[in-house]
Amino acid sequence: MKKKIALVALALVLGSLLWYLFLRPYDARARWEVKALPGTINQTLKAWDKSLPTDQGIAQGDDLTELIQLLPYGDSLHQYRWELNQKTDSTTQIVLYVTDKNNSVSNRLASPFSTTALEQRTLQNVTDFRTRLKDHLNNTRVTFLGEEELGTTFCAYIPVASTQWEKAAMMMKHQPLLSQVLAENEVQLNGLPFIEVTKWNQTNDSIYYNFCFPIIRSERLPNHPEIKYKRLFSKKVLKAEYNGNYITSDRAWYALQNYAERNGIAVENTPIEFFYNNPNMGGNALSWKAEVFLPLKTEESNE
């Protein structure tokens, strides 16, 4: 009997050792919760990745809650697998699994007896990213305002293709032309500048949008190869207010999307943003304001 118990114990020890050395899907793990939605964390993580000298790009999984990041250090290639698990309507658990693709077994052998280089590097990177995310959250604010009707408007616009991160820069690039042509032709403005997203690829963060100036329609609108005209018709929308740098106003897109998913509301992933401030005037970005809308799906949009 004692021999059988000893053999079972030995098998368990050997099985655990085999799992630890060869089968466990990570070498190190970090886990914490933050008061932010997965979309905000996803975009901040991608921006942080671009800032690293070891940047090899970061790949998104099936949705924005799973990302794979590769970071080379000497003869090691660290793979970071990020999981963003939303816990409440405002908090997310971040779980990071780290594996050294070249030296995994040696790391696991050394880990019980000393702090490995992989663990030190992981701690540094986690601390760096947490600081980056905290700073971002302190400098942006999204307030959900409910459902309303967005009115009809006629506008002059320039079609733009960019990434989400480049959105504000492309607006600033096209604003002088649009302003100049309309002013020179005495076109009367009729509201705040806005963008109308027409296509949003959430896997690679690319967008197509119309950069628009609301105007009074007339029979003598200027003919320019880059400027087009259209009417936006009234539609029901979810509305949020965004405060912060317009580079990251897409955080409100994710907040509206998240609200719709949690409440079973069908929406079109074509955000609309109205801008109250001119970034060229500077000032505290947290005082900048944008109204952000996500259109509700209608029977016509489902056809």
From TrEMBL:
<feature type="domain" description="GyrI-like small molecule binding">
    <location>
        <begin position="178"/>
        <end position="297"/>
    </location>
</feature>
<protein>
    <submittedName>
        <fullName>Transcriptional regulator</fullName>
    </submittedName>
</protein>
<dbReference type="InterPro" id="IPR029442">
    <property type="entry name" value="GyrI-like"/>
</dbReference>
<dbReference type="Pfam" id="PF06445">
    <property type="entry name" value="GyrI-like"/>
</dbReference>
<dbReference type="InterPro" id="IPR011256">
    <property type="entry name" value="Reg_factor_effector_dom_sf"/>
</dbReference>
